[in-house]
Structure formats: C-alpha cells, structure tokens
Amino acid sequence: MAATKKKKVVKKKEEKNTAKKNTTKKSTTAKKITTKKAVKKTPAKSKATQKTESVKTDAVAENSQKEKLAEQAKIAEEKRLAEEAAAKKAQEEKLAEEARIAEEKRLAEEAAAKKAQEEKLAEEARIAEEKRLAEEVAAKKAQEEKLAEEARIAEEKRLAEEVAAKKAEEKRLAEEARIAEEKRLAKEAAAKKAEEERLAEEARIAEEKRLAEEARIAEEERLAEEARIAEEKRLAEEAAAKKAEEERLAEEARIAEEKRLAEEVAAKKAAAKKAEEEKLAEEAKIAEEKRLAEEAATLKRIAETNKIIKAIAAKEAMESEISNTPPPSPPAEPPDKPFGKPLMIAGACFILVIAMIVISSFNNSHRYYIKNTFQGMEIWKGDFAPVSKHKVAFLEGVVYPGDKKACYGAKEVLPVAFFHYINAADDLLNAEGTVDFKRVRAYIDTAAKFATDAKDAETLNEYRTLFFEASITPELETGHAKDTATHTETAVADSAVDVK
C-alpha cells in the first residue's frame, strides 16, 4: 500500500515537470517567431547595423538557449529532488511500516506470553485446588471406610458369636436326638436278636427230638421211613409257613416303622410351620409396637420441645412488656442472673437439635441404599444415626430393576435379594445329578433374612418342605431309617430361622 502511494506521488511530480517543459518550449518558440518577424519588417540597413543586430540576435538566442538549458537543468534538478523525496518518503514509510509491524509483533508476543503465564498460573492454581480437594475427599473417604470397617467387624463378630451359639445348640439337640434314636434302635435290635435266638433254640430242640425219634424207630425201617417222610413233609411245610410268617412280620414292621417316621416328620413339619407362623406374627407385632412407640416418643419429644420454645417465647414477651413499662419504684429484690435467659434459649436449642438428630436417625434406620458395581448389586442399610450405613447383602450378577433413587424402602429392595436366593435354591433343587443340600439350605436360610411379609413366609415354608422331601426321599428309598431320622431332625433344627 505504501509503495502504491509512492508511485502515485512520483507520477504526479513527473506530470508537473512535463507541463513546465511544454510551457518553456512554447515561450521560446514565441520569442523566435517575434524576432524573425521583427527582422523581416526592419528595412534594409547598413551592414554595421545588421552586424550589430545579428550580434544582438545571437546574444538573445544564446540567452534563450541558456535560459532553456537552465530551465531544463532546473526541471531535472526538481525531478531528481522529487524522486529523492519520494524515495526518502517511501523509505520512511517502509521503515515506519516495518517498525509498526515489529511493534505489533512484539506486543502480540508480549500479550501471548502474558496470557500463557496467566494460563499457567491458573492451571497451577486449579491443579493445587484439585489436589487439595482430592486429599480432603480421600481423607474423608478413608475415615468413612475405617468407621464402616469397624462397624462391619463388630457386626461380623456379633453374628459369628450368635451363629456359633446357635450351631452349638443345634449340635447339642441333634446329638441328643441321635443318641435317643440309637438307644431305641439298639433296644429293638436286641429284642429282635433275642427273638431269633429263641426261635433258633426251639428249632434246635425240635431237631434233636426228631433225630432221637428217628434213632428210636430206626429198627422199623418201613414204618420209620414212612414216619420220616411224613415228618419231613410236615417240617418242610412248617418251615415254609414259619418263614412266610417271619417275612410277613418283618414287612409289617418295616411298613409300620416307615409310617411312624413319616407321621413324625409330618408332625414336626406342621409344628415347625405353626411355630414359624406364630413367631412371624409375634415379631411383626413387636416390630409394629416398637415403631409406634418410637414414633410416639419422637412426637412427644417434639411436643415437649415446642412447649419449651413457646414457654421461652412467652417469657421473653412478658419480659419485653415489663421492660417497656416503666416501673413505679426501684425493685426491692436483686435482679435475675444475667446468663439465665441465654442459658434457657441454648438449652431449648440443644433439645431441638437432639430431637432433630433422633428423628433423622430413626428415619435413616428404615432406609436402604443400592450401589451397582461391575460384579453385581450391593444393598446397604442405614444405621440409627443421621448418615451412617452398613452393607447387608451383595447380589452377584444382579442389577436393580427399578428406578434409581437416593434411598429406598424395605419393600422396594429386600424382595430383590429374597427372590435372588430363592431362585438359586430352586435351581439347585431342580438340577440334574446329586443335589448339594448344604447350599440349598444356606440359600433358603439367607432368603429368610430378606422376607418382608406373610407371602414371603409362605414361599419359604414351601421351599423348606421341598428341601425336606428331597433330602429324605433317597434315604427312605434305601431303607436307612437311622440316618433318615438323624438327617431329618438336623434339617428341622437348622431350618428354624427367623423371618423379618
């Protein structure tokens, strides 16, 4: 752009010089013409005069030529000066443009450096703040995990002690039942053995009598032979009848024993079911009474707190009225303590805070939380505290099917865990091959911890019945009465689990 301006200025100066040259040429030509005309008009003179005029004319022409040369030199000088001025101006403009570009570049670099410095400082401040927040979060998380771990360890220790006590009691009951059954079976075996020995003794005596009789009648061969044949036939028939009788008696005894065992199992099953239903009803009643009592106590504490606050407000209003009314005379008694009123307000606020904490803790103890992980779903239950909680179950490969919320009720969460373990027990019972009864019983007992209503209790009783039938059927078919009775007693004892 500066070069274009410079070209325009140079062009204008050249046009101006050209115009000056044309003007000079015109004036010179006019002078020559005028001189010639004057010469023509002048009459013939003397040679001296002509010579003088010729000299003058030459002088005039020489002067014109000098003026022309001077004018041309002047024009050339002006042109040179104009070109030098234009070149100088272009140079100055170029230098100014370069200086401006350099200055803009320097300012841009300084601005970029300043911006980079500010961004670097902002990034360092952000990293430092994130690091501080991360450290605070890590410390808080470590504290929460430590508290949760301590609570979990204490709860696991308590549950382990309860399980150990329960297992010892169940083992003792099973051992007593096994010993009683062994004693009964031993008595029956002894009686049966005595009966068999008596029958064998009678058969031996009869055989000896028969041999004696045969020896006595050995001389009478024909009669003895006929008597022997008749006796052998009679003895064979008696032995066959006796054997058939013994087999009939053994079959009747086996059928009666199986019937007695089945009746005992049915009676124990009905008694266990009835006891379980009564226990569930009693626990539901106790839980409802406890909840109502806690709600009543909470409402009572709130009412008392409101009453105290109203009393304090009334007292403050009364004191304000008394302070606004000028007393007729100075008080005869000493003034109240200066800290009485603030202490009462502080006490009322403290009671209100305690009531709010109790209400918050009570509400939190009835809340459940869900945490979905890559392995499955974790169920957490709130403690009797404003915010703390503990893990109650981990369901592998399960995702909560409902909507995602901050907290859940028992009937929203516990059925998921209940049917997870019930379905696992059902899969094992319906699996081909040998059934793992320990795992089935463990799944049923774990599902009992997450039952929420009578329908879940009925489902538990149905699966316990299926478990008992599946566990005793193979043993009844093989005739292992002793093992069957022992296993049935143990299963009944182990399956007497509390239902929430």
Explain how this protein is built:
The chain is mainly α. It folds into 2 domains: 1-34 and 57-182; 290-323 and 337-494, no CATH class. It is 82% helix and 4% strand. It is built from 8 helices and 3 strands, in the order H-H-H-H-E-E-E-H-H-H-H. The chain has a 3-stranded antiparallel beta sheet. The chain is elongated, with a radius of gyration of 63 Å.
Distance between the termini: 93 Å
How many domains comprise the coordinates?
2
Instruction: Determine the mean pLDDT.
Output: 80
Largest sheet: 3 strands, antiparallel
Unreliable spans are: 35-44, 331-337, 480-500
**Number of strand elements:** 3
| Sheet with the most strands: spatial strand order | 1-2-3
Structural class call reads mainly alpha
Explain the layout of strands and helices:
Layout: H1 2-41, H2 47-216, H3 221-324, H4 340-365, E1 368-372, E2 376-382, E3 389-396, H5 410-429, H6 437-448, H7 454-478, H8 481-494
Antiparallel strand pairs: 1-2, 2-3
Helix pairs in contact: 1-2, 2-8, 3-4, 3-7, 3-8, 5-6, 5-7, 6-7, 7-8
Question: Which tags fit this structure?
Answer:
single chain; 500 residues; 2 domains; disordered C terminus; 3-stranded antiparallel sheet; 8 helices; elongated; mainly alpha; 82% helix; 3 strands; 4% strand
